[in-house]
TrEMBL record:
Source lineage: unclassified sequences, metagenomes, ecological metagenomes
Protein name: DNRLRE domain-containing protein
């Protein structure tokens, strides 16, 4: 399984750490304001907001609106009123909800209405493409504001039984050039921690170059050899492996399809070939005391840690070869 993470889901918080948008203390600067309607009389200033709370200041530009009750609505439902006594008056208003980003806010009888960019319509879990801005940037989601910010692609490899060997790993991507011209896609190691709470560090770039592949320009399925990086992560016990993508060329962009794309064959996938390491046989010997009346004593310990986690051990057969006989097997 794989996940493409865009900046609609991960932001760099005020403490410098990357967090999911639902945990970040501040989202200001990452989500743009959309005027659904602007009457030119009522306006506002956003102080700050996060996923569940928004703080803003309302004011008027026309003195005729002073000393009037200004209706303030959320999703068309009046929540509060404010009466301003001067054009410099900017009272603070705070709203809380389960998802501040999904609501619209109206101010005044003429209803200047705004909405913060809704991540539920901008995430990559649909048919929207995943696009880089130009050849100087790491792969980004091109329709967001701000653009040209880094992102990554992650695959969960936890279904591969532990203790085995990665023989080959190939990353397949359906890509398309932004201007229809051929380009070369590069895939790099992306050494970041994915614990589902940490996002992409803005300063993080790819590590070693793993492979390159040329794109013909339009909807081309490319394949990239990422065996060394997948094997390294698997051996280290990582359940996730990540890659950074880049392109070479001038004024070009590359589009990558997301994991939820409606056509399954177009989704990115990581093909891994691995070998199951068999349980090592055990050979042991006991020296006969040369006296049939004396019982030789020995312990045999079976370590089955190398048995694949998807297998069931139903029985163990012990074979022995001796000049006498064992009365007991421990």
């Amino acid at each position: 399984s794989n996940t493409i993470i865009g900046r609609t889901e991960w932001v760099k918080d005020i403490d410098g750490k990357c967090k999911g948008i639902r945990e970040a203390e501040s989202l200001k600067g990452y989500f743009s304001i959309r005027y659904l309607k602007n009457d030119g009389i009522h306006d506002f200033e956003i102080v700050d907001f996060n996923y569940t709370s928004i703080e803003l200041k309302v004011f008027v530009r026309d003195s005729k609106e002073l000393n009037k009750d200004i209706p303030i609505k959320v999703d068309g439902i009046q929540k509060k009123t404010k009466r301003l006594t001067s054009l410099s008056d900017k009272p603070t208003i705070i709203f809380k909800s389960d998802n501040i980003l999904a609501s619209n806010y109206s101010f005044g009888s003429e209803s200047t209405t705004i909405m913060l960019q809704d991540p539920d319509t901008e995430t990559l879990d649909d048919d929207d493409p995943f696009e880089s801005g130009d050849s100087t940037t790491w792969t980004i989601y091109g329709s967001l504001n701000p653009t040209r910010t880094p992102s990554g692609i992650k695959f969960n490899i936890s279904e591969i039984p532990a203790g085995n060997q990665i023989d080959a790993a190939t990353l397949y991507l359906l890509v398309s050039s932004g201007n229809g011209l051929p380009l070369t896609v590069q895939v790099f190691e992306y050494d970041i921690v994915w614990n589902e709470e940490d996002g992409i560090d803005e300063s993080t770039t790819g590590g070693a170059l793993l492979d390159t592949d040329a794109d013909s320009g339009v909807d081309d399925l490319i394949n990239l050899d990422v065996t060394s990086w997948v094997s390294s992560g698997y051996t280290s016990g990582d359940i996730n492996v990540s890659f950074a993508l880049n392109i070479t060329g001038t004024f070009q962009s590359v589009t990558v399809i997301s994991k939820e794309f409606s056509t399954a064959s177009s989704r990115p996938f990581l093909n891994i070939t691995f070998s199951i390491i068999p349980v090592i046989g055990i050979t042991t010997s006991l020296t006969s005391p040369g006296d049939a009346s004396v019982e030789p004593d020995g312990d045999i310990t079976f370590n089955c840690s190398a048995v694949p986690v998807l297998s069931n051990v139903t029985n163990i057969t012990l074979y022995h070869n001796s000049s006498g006989s064992f009365d007991k097997i421990h």
